[in-house]
């Protein structure tokens, strides 16, 4: 494979500028099993200001569980999306960028060939990150949503091919301390391919919840999360298409609006009601809901099942929705490395990959 770096400098540009000059422009691309997402931003006193964004469902991992390789159709869809990302980065004059790939590329036997092709056709070089770093970046992006009165926080990211969990101490200790993390081989694409995504029966849905629950159990036992939840002052933060979709359905949004979703609180009772309503609908009816659409209609039930397993294991009663994650974590890390810091920074060392690694849950890598 051609040696690739996940960080793409623009020729002749530098990330440091004279204080009176315009702040440099950074980009972060997150290529997952289901989505291709990009943010372009510039640092400011509040952290950073987004100047452009892109998100497209590409289903890179479609059929991966059975074939063990990325399909030609999935690769073509993804490269088409990445051409758009490359054009946007050129137009915005991006000085530094980082582009990462996650579970689909970790699993695919033809990942190296695919990433060589991406670099040749789009000019974007990717790095395939570990599950450990994926969890760290997801956490770094969500730190601003931590409640001041929370003793502990559990951050989860339900992805297409995996689900990341990070267990955090946040009771005034600076920096916040990672108590444990894991990456579970269970996501909305893998689960829906196993059980179906059209008319999901009650038995199939229950089996999905049970499958996810069994995967959560070792993490719960290793870190005593349920006991801490029972003691109180534990915050649950969800960052994924599942929780943002449910929030959009709850608010009955005619189209998705990040400003109304990011940071909203979802009560478990509302989540269960929405899940029951969705289970009564077929694929076409779910696709007709604006916050779901045809691209998520066959995946949302699997996401609800993973979320319900989390709710059962740790009955906090509500969660904070984060429309943020890996891209924000990458931007924070890139800007910190260049000396730009958020004046509200709570995070200390938790944004970097080395922050997660001393105490993984059994089975994590």
Task: Summarize the structure in words.
By secondary structure, this protein is α/β, with parallel strands linked by helices. The chain has two domains: 1-129, ATPase, nucleotide binding domain (Nucleotidyltransferase, domain 5), CATH 3.30.420.40; 146-321, Exopolyphosphatase. Domain 2 (Nucleotidyltransferase, domain 5), CATH 3.30.420.150. Helix content is 42%, strand content 19%. The protein has 15 helices and eleven strands. It has helices at 64-67, 72-92, 103-107, 111-122, 131-142, 188-195, 202-223, 225-231, 241-251, 258-261, 268-279, 283-287, 293-296, 300-313, 326-337, and strands at residues 26-31, 35-44, 47-57, 96-101, 127-128, 152-158, 163-169, 177-184, 234-238, 265-267, 318-321. Strands 8-7-6-9-11-10 form a six-stranded mixed β-sheet, sandwiched between helices. It has a five-stranded mixed β-sheet with strand order 3-2-1-4-5, sandwiched between helices. Strand 1 (26-31) and strand 2 form a beta hairpin. Helix 6 (188-195) crosses helix 14 and helix 9 crosses helix 14. The longest helix has 22 residues, at 202-223. The two termini are 23 Å apart. Mean pLDDT is 87; it is low at 1-20 and 343-365.
């Amino acid at each position: 494979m051609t040696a690739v770096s996940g960080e793409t400098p623009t020729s002749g540009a530098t990330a440091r500028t004279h204080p009176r000059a315009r702040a440099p422009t950074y980009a972060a691309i997150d290529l997952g099993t289901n989505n291709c997402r990009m943010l372009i931003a510039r640092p400011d006193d509040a952290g950073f200001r987004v100047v452009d964004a892109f998100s497209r469902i590409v289903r890179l991992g479609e059929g991966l569980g059975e074939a063990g390789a990325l399909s030609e159709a999935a690769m073509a869809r993804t490269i088409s999306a990445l051409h758009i990302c490359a054009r946007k980065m050129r137009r915005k004059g991006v000085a530094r960028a980082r582009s990462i790939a996650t579970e689909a590329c970790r699993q695919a036997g033809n990942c190296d060939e695919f990433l060589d092709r991406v670099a040749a056709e789009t000019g974007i070089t990717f790095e395939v990150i570990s599950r450990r770093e994926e969890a760290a970046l997801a956490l770094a992006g969500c730190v601003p949503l931590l409640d001041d009165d929370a003793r502990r926080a559990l951050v989860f990211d339900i992805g297409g091919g995996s689900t990341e969990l990070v267990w955090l101490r946040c009771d005034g200790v600076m920096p916040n301390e990672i108590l444990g993390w894991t990456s579970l081989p269970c996501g909305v694409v893998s689960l829906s391919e196993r059980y179906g995504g059209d008319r999901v029966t009650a038995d199939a849905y229950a089996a999905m919840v049970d499958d996810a629950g069994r995967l959560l159990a070792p993490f719960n036992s290793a870190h005593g999360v349920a006991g801490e939840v029972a003691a109180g002052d534990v915050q649950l933060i969800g960052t994924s298409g599942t929780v943002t979709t449910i929030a959009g359905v709850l608010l009955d949004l005619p189209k998705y609006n990040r400003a109304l979703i990011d940071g909203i609180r979802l009560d478990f009772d509302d989540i269960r009601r929405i899940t029951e309503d969705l289970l009564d609908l077929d694929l076409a009816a779910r696709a007709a809901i604006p916050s779901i659409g045809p691209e998520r209609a066959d995946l949302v039930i699997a996401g609800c099942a993973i979320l319900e397993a989390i709710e059962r294991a740790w009955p906090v009663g509500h969660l904070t929705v984060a429309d943020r994650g890996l891209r924000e974590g990458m931007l924070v890390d890139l800007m910190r490395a260049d000396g730009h810091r958020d004046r509200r920074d709570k995070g200390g060392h938790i944004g970097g990959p080395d922050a997660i690694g001393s105490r993984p849950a059994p089975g994590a890598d």
